[in-house]
């Protein structure tokens, strides 16, 4: 017998995997399985926005604090670009979420700027000054 979802998540997962493999679909906990699959999709979307926010944050620092530019900042930008590209390669359909997530990512980047730097947010535009394509472009570093 498979443990209940609320009592033993790992046991519930392994039990439902076994049911899937044995094609015992009528014994599966479909309601919770749907919830978990939706959560998995949402987690990927949140990862996209989070990575994009980090990348925009580093690009903003690069632009607004030119005296502090260095290899570590360049490395951070490159790393976030790589992570984003990997995420999009693994889940290409996430590109359809970029438009709605881009403004959210910019707002999050501004919150990080506010928290971690002395940059005045009033100096920044209301909408992200970069395009998604620029963010992913290995040659793009804003002046």
Please write out the topology.
Elements: H1 9-21, H2 30-64, H3 71-90, H4 98-116, H5 132-136
Helix pairs in contact: 2-3, 2-4
Determine the strand fraction and express it as a percent band. Answer: under 5%
Terminus-to-terminus distance: 62 Å
Low-confidence stretches: none
The chain-level structural class is: mainly alpha
Mean pLDDT, all residues = 95
| Major β-sheet annotation | none
Q: Count the strands? A: 0
Shape descriptor: elongated
N to C succession of SSEs: HHHHH
Count of helical segments? 5
What share of the residues lie within helices? 55-70%
Radius of gyration: 20 Å
Folded structure, characterized:
It holds the Pfam family DUF29. InterPro entries: DUF29. This is DUF29 domain-containing protein. The chain is about 65% helix and about 0% strand. The termini are far apart. The chain has a domain at about 40-135. It is elongated, with a radius of gyration of 20 Å. About 20% of the residues are buried. It is built from 5 helices and no strands. By secondary structure, the protein is mainly α.
């Amino acid at each position: 017998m498979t443990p209940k979802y609320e009592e033993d998540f790992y046991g519930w997962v392994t039990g439902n995997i076994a049911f899937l493999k044995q094609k015992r679909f009528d014994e599966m906990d479909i309601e919770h399985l749907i919830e978990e699959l939706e959560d998995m999709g949402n987690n990927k979307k949140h990862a996209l926005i989070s990575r994009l926010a980090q990348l925009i944050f580093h690009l903003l620092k690069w632009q607004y604090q030119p005296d502090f530019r260095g290899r570590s900042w360049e490395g951070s930008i490159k790393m976030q670009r790589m992570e984003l590209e990997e995420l999009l390669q693994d889940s290409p359909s996430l590109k359809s979420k970029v438009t709605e997530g881009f403004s959210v990512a910019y707002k999050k980047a501004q919150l990080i700027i506010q928290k971690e730097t002395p940059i005045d947010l009033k100096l920044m535009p209301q909408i992200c000054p970069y395009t998604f394509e620029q963010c992913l472009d290995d040659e793009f570093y804003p002046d």
